[in-house]
Amino acid sequence: MGVEALPRTIAWVAQDGADGVDGAVVRLVEQRELPARLVFWDVRCVEELEDAIASLAVRGAPALGLAGAFGVCLAGVELLSGAGDRRHGSESGFDAASHGAEAFLGALEPLARHLAAVRPTAVNLAWGVEQALGAVRAAVVQGVSARTALAHAIAQAQELAREDEVANRAIGAYGAALLPDGARVLTHCNAGSLACGFYGTALGVVYAAFEQGKLAHVYADETRPVGQGARLTMWELTQAGVPCTLQCDGMAASLMAAGKVDAVVVGADRIAANGDTANKIGTYPLAISAAYHGIPFYVAAPTSTVDASLPDGSGIPIEYRDAREVIDVEGFSPDVFNPSFDVTPAALIAGIVTERGVYEPGEILQALSL
Ligand code: MRU
């Protein structure tokens, strides 16, 4: 099938010929159904999108950024139709018929704040929300109608989706250049096309190296507890025709000791100013193992994942998830520790691959000033 035939993970779909408002849905790949079935979910309101985000039907930092932007637009569609107030049983005080873009923005902001807080670790969710709100704010200054302001936000969100793909292809090209010929790459979680709008970050590096004929094999960590590696990474690599092998998380160090890994490439949910990086739980022990075995450990992420407001990784908010993700046996409820992410210290990272080039972790802020 090849990488180019992978599905778009998230897209705004509206009636033809309109400004993107009428009949709008956010079309998602329903990732909880993979690898058994490729199913799309047409999400019709922001509340439903929040459920999709919380339940991991859509997940992965760049895809969450797009979900944030599209979610603000969905909330806007609801406000214009009056459906939002009816559904939430609340009064936004917004009357589409008699109010302009400023009142629209005022009604949209609390809905946007709620959406941005659904998952705390990936900075991209709040970033995407802010990008769409920014378009509405700019429209308010222009004195346009609420509907036109919403159309601007939709256009901005769609532009983010286009930029996501361009950025991932650039990350792929920069990252592939770091790999030796015949590279055997180990990855964790799913930082692939399914975690983005299209193509992927860590798997973008894999796809670019594969296209160049320099990739021999990918080893995918299972990624307990939810199995993003086993279910999603193995599915998309197989679809793309990339040779791959699945192993349990605890087997990674043995693979390295056996001399089967040339590089580790992972994605990121939030990168602090000093290069400390939050990613799926189990990334940090992987970085320690790679350092012990003298294997380069790379982080691949767009610059939208950098949080310049945090000096180091100690301030990154870590999401804790339901115990039943770890063990779900009727009548048995042990105490469970289930953080969804860990923070890998910058000292263990050989380079951060962005769409603007490869940076030393401690110099990652330079990528933002380009
Ligand atoms: O809980 P998830 O599936 O959203 O976690 C995803 C990850 O940790 C990814 O590695 C990260 O978001 C980078 S995706 C390009």
Automatic annotation (TrEMBL):
Its EC number is 5.3.1.23. The record marks C189 as: Transition state stabilizer. The keyword Isomerase applies. Keywords: Amino-acid biosynthesis, Isomerase, Methionine biosynthesis. Gene3D superfamilies: translation initiation factor eif-2b, domain 1, Translation initiation factor eif-2b, domain 2. PANTHER family: METHYLTHIORIBOSE-1-PHOSPHATE ISOMERASE (PTHR43475). This is Methylthioribose-1-phosphate isomerase. It comes from Candidatus Aveggerthella stercoripullorum. The gene is mtnA.
